Amino acid sequence: MNERLPFLRDKAGRLPLRPGVYQMRGFDGKILYIGKAKALKNRVSSYFQNIFKHNEKTFKLVENINDFDFIITDSELDALILEARLIKQYQPKYNILLKDDKGLNYFKITADKYPRIVHSFDNNDKTASYIGPFASSFTVKQTAEEANRIFMLPTCSRIFPRDFGKERPCLNFYIKKCMGVCLGNICAEEYLSQINAAVEYIKAGSRKSIEELTADMENSSENLQFERAARIRDQIKAIKRSETLQRIESSKTIGYDVVGFAQSSALASVAIIKYRDGRIIDKENYFLGDEYEPEQMRYEFLLEYYDRSDEMPREVCIDYELSDRELLEEYFKSKFKKKISILTPKRGEGLAQITLAQSNAAEYLAVKSGRTAKEMAALEKLAQVLGLSKMPLHIESYDISNLGESFKVGGMIVYKNGKPFKAGYRKFTVKDVAGQDDYASMSEMVRRRFMRFLNGDGSFSKKPDLIFLDGGKGHVRAIKAVLGELGILDIPVYGLVKDERHHTRALTGDGGELRIGLDRQVFALLTAIQDEVHRFSIQFQRGTHKKKTYELQLTKVKGIGERKAISLIKHFKTKQKLKEATAGELMDIAKISMEKAEELFLFIKENL
Predict the structure, then answer these.
(1) 393: left (phi > 0), else alpha (psi -120 to 50), else beta?
(2) Which of the two ends of the chain, N or C, has the fewest CB atoms closer than 10 A to its terminal CB?
(3) Within this chain, domains 256-370 and 385-544 share the same CATH topology
(4) How far, in Å, CA of 20 to CA of 92, rounded?
């Protein structure tokens, strides 16, 4: 723990209740974080109180603060302007530093006899020709796909003319998405004219392409080239249809951005979808390292993203209500000299577009963190069902298993990123509970786990995003009481309720039962968690029971007490290995005479 905390608390307590900017400095004197506050004393003091309630990112920041500076301003807007300027100047480690997926993006036209139009991240192929570079991979990919579809160009892996007539045409030919070059009845000159038309479409846009294609169609018709004229007519229709499909994506005619977030405990992803003249024209993705509070993350992102931009649309739709919304609008109004509105749509087209942006952010986060979209979707839906502010990527589940009063054990399993994380599994032997008291037994297990967390035990250093208990309301109340005593109040706790067939049917918490059967993905995830924690606990209980049985049997041999029996069981681990042990090995492990070891050897052979 940071030894400077008493000094920092005292200094923060003497700050004024006035607007301003604060700068957290590390032990090397460098600025770690810059923030603004409506009341400096309240905001800065919050960092140094109840530090175990902070999220992981803030906790790490506080651990590394040696001192802080502050600047008083006349208003909160002045503080915001100064904050933006200082962040841009110093780029502090713990402020949001945007990392996007932008690079160099090109349209590549290959140098084959029958060229292809594809998206490329470089222009290193000296034989090919390129259009670009462009900043947005989204725009290049989408436009390349659109051009190939409209002009019915092949996108398969076949090589022409080598593969003419070798196989039947693929599905794209039959649904009129490809002209069927593989049949061998389209000459290279005719194909190149289609490529050139597609390239012009990419360079000049749909309006100019329609004008040029219309002139070409009329010319072909006059020259009695009716098949060619019909194909060009179909291309014109496809371009117009594509325009229409794009245009109905939004009923708004003004330009606006839609910003959606997806967050894990170590990373957040942001997708900005840009609508102009009623259609999507671009999409950008950014990754934000570390864990952020949902509102603070969105506030900092908007400030950083638009403050470094030269233009901003009149409307920005975001997926979370911001308490500082009016302040940001005022700041952006002063910067861009026009009225800016930050909206949070709750229904209709706006909500659908927010959901689309969130889905894009989630897909990028899934790719970045190595999870599948299916696992991500299950965690997202679980967060929605439980009303969590972010996906629970580190889930712990607990179960008690007992066989009479003598064999009470507990199991803790971990689901990380939607999958079992067996390196995090832990076993507990209940020591201090008399009788079969499940509530007390589970309370002892959870208390021991979080005492080790508070004491800095490396094997228990991760605080879970969510806890599930194999039990009902009583278990939830008991465990919440334990966490409350330890000052850990920010972990949601739910019981996994079973039906008469021992199947997961609902969740229980403070507000009663939540039925989960209507959502297949959430149901499957929770069932898997409950089955796994039950299996793990039962397996541990059975193993403990067997060892205890062997231990009791071994103590029947005169001179073999409980300690010697335990040492033998720990060393050999299984009954089979114990039976295969030689008298000499038994003598060495139990530290007994050879005569006693031979007596023990015979007893094991005859009785185990």
Answers:
(1) alpha
(2) N
(3) yes
(4) 18
Instruction: Name beta bridge partners: 426.
Output: 412
Q: Which residue has the tokens 């993705």?
A: 285
**Predicted pLDDT at 30:** 93
Range 385-544: architecture per CATH: 2-Layer Sandwich (3.30)
pLDDT tens sequence across 316-329: 999 999 999 999 99
- Superfamily in which the 5-95 domain is placed by CATH: GIY-YIG endonuclease (3.40.1440.10)
pLDDT tens digit string along 52-105?
Answer: 778 777 888 999 999 999 999 988 988 998 898 898 888 898 887 665 545 567
Which pair of structure tokens corresponds to residue 337?
Answer: 């000299």
Place of tokens 């530290």: 591
Instruction: Confirm if 295 and 342 have CB atoms less than 8 A apart.
Output: no
| pLDDT the model gives residue 182 | 93
β-strands 256-263, 407-416 pairing = unpaired
**For residue 68, what are the contacts with CB-CB under 8 A and spacing of at least 6?**
8, 11, 12, 22, 23, 24, 25, 44
Angle between helices 583-590 and 562-572 (to 10 degrees): 120
Report the sign of the C-alpha dihedral through residues 243, 249, 252, 257, in that order: negative
In the block, residue with structure tokens 């030919």: 173
CB 540 within 8 A of CB 401: yes
Q: Which CATH architecture has domain 555-607?
A: Orthogonal Bundle (1.10)
Instruction: Single out the residue of 34, 33, 37, 40 nearest to residue 16, CA to CA.
Output: 40
Per residue in 227-272, pLDDT tens?
778 777 877 776 665 554 443 345 566 789 999 998 765 678 898 9
Q: Which residue has the higher pLDDT, 388 or 556?
A: 388
- The b/e string for 155-186 (b: 16+ C-beta within 10 A; e otherwise) is ebeeebeeebeeeebbebbeeebbbbbbeeeb
Check: CB of residue 62 under 8 Å from CB of residue 102: no
Section 491-497 average pLDDT? 91
The per-residue pLDDT for 517 is 60
Which residue, 130, 135, 136, 99, is CA-closest to 116? 130
Work out the mean pLDDT of the chain and round it to a whole number: 83
- Measure the CA–CA gap between 279 and 218, rounded to whole angstroms: 30
Q: Burial, 149: exposed, middle or buried (Cβ in 10 Å; 0-12, 13-18, 19+)?
A: middle
Specify the fold of 256-370. Answer: Nucleotidyltransferase; domain 5 (3.30.420)
Q: What is the mean pLDDT of the segment spanning 262-288?
A: 79
How many CB atoms are closer than 10 A to CB 218? Answer: 12
Domain chopping of the chain, boundaries? 5-95, 105-247, 256-370, 385-544, 555-607
Return d(Cα 295, Cα 300) in angstroms, integer: 9
User: CA dist 556 to 545, 553, 562, Å?
Assistant: 17, 6, 10
Written as one string, the DSSP assignment of 29-60 is S-EEEEEEESSHHHHHHHHTSSGGGS-HHHHH
Triad 459, 461, 464: Cα angle to 5°:
115
Cis ω before 161 (30° cut-off from 0): yes
pTM (two decimals): 0.48
